[in-house]
What we know:
Layout: E1 2-9, E2 12-19, E3 30-38, H1 41-47, E4 59-60, E5 64-72, E6 82-86, E7 101-104, E8 110-111, H2 118-140, E9 150-153, H3 158-169, E10 174-177, H4 184-190, E11 194-196, E12 211-216, H5 220-228, E13 230-238, H6 252-257, E14 260-263, H7 270-280, E15 293-296, H8 301-309, E16 316-320
Parallel strand pairs: 9-10, 9-12, 10-11, 12-13, 13-14, 15-16
Antiparallel strand pairs: 1-2, 1-4, 3-5, 3-7, 3-16, 5-6, 6-8
This protein binds NADP nicotinamide-adenine-dinucleotide phosphate.
Amino acid sequence: MKAYRIEKDGKVGRGVVVDMAESDLDPGEVSIATRFAGINYKDALAGLGGAPIIRRFPCNGGIEAVGTVLTSEDARFAPGDSVIVHGRGIGVSHDGGLAERLRVPADWVMAIPGGLTAQEAATLGVAGYSAALAVDRLEALGLAPGDLPVAVSGASGGVGAFAVAMLAGLGFQVLAISSKADAVPFLTGLGAAEVITPGDLGDKTFGPARWCGGIDAAGGPVLAKMLAGTDRDGAIASLGNAAGVELTTTVLPFILRGVTLTGINADSDMNTRRRIWARLANDLKPDRLADWADIVALRDVPDVMARMLDGQTTGRTIVGFGNDAPT
Ligand SMILES: NC(=O)c1ccc[n+]([C@@H]2O[C@H](COP(=O)([O-])OP(=O)(O)OC[C@H]3O[C@@H](n4cnc5c(N)ncnc54)[C@H](OP(=O)(O)O)[C@@H]3O)[C@@H](O)[C@H]2O)c1
């Protein structure tokens, strides 16, 4: 079997496509023939040594996979089932999805919900799941469509683009924040009412209310400026760090406007996964999902990762395996 395998390189990892024996995969009750695996920013950091993500070397990369069950020692799954696995250590401390085969504990596996094909589920992947989790959290914190928009940073990336489409689909006005001038047609096509650059956020640590809340895939100074412009009782969901991990802000958004800063971690428990994936198959399912992803081959992974870390990718890129691989 072929795999994008990450070996230790100093304090970080370095990935390369290799041939390996299936018997060398990490153990688990469920063996899966991978059909699709999305490439995420975290995968790119892990594979290109951008951060010490991998906890156990060598390790197949890929924090998500969609595939077909080959064998199962657990009664919940049977050969032929279409399943999705994300988080729970795959691509970090357990051989991950960027490989023709995956073997995982049954507790990590979820059936793809009705209403989504395998390709649609993979197109959504961790990015769509995280965006949906953030939208769901903002709704729980009281955000509803109104006069002010919801701001979305890193808007042209995987998480950001899904967040824009889902919020617009729910009737929110969406203010997309993107550093790519050429992403404006893409983002307005997804339903963004306006697209601005991170530079347009200004440099105030507290300023006039411009949005009722936001989803932040960028982090760092972008998150600080999103907090500065959030309306009374608004909420910002922080889920990414593409622009930095440090947060320098003041308490003013919190004590003068009652703003909530809430954190999103996509490695949810199984009940939350089932609930959010059910929404992804229904009210949060973006239109024309089949058109959202570029499907590439396993050999293309290093190149896609390099462009991703350079901020040059748009939307989702997923690897197709077997009959689903591009010709
Ligand atoms: N918390 C969780 O559980 C969770 C789950 C999934 C993802 N994440 C994180 O969320 C973030 C986005 O993930 P993704 O898969 O959507 O990645 P992605 O497809 O690479 O998108 C990241 C986007 O961030 C923007 N960006 C990149 N570098 C930037 C910079 N220096 N300054 C400002 N913006 C920058 C770019 O969008 P623009 O050009 O449009 O600005 C880029 O397209 C990552 O940090 C990822 O690790 C977290």
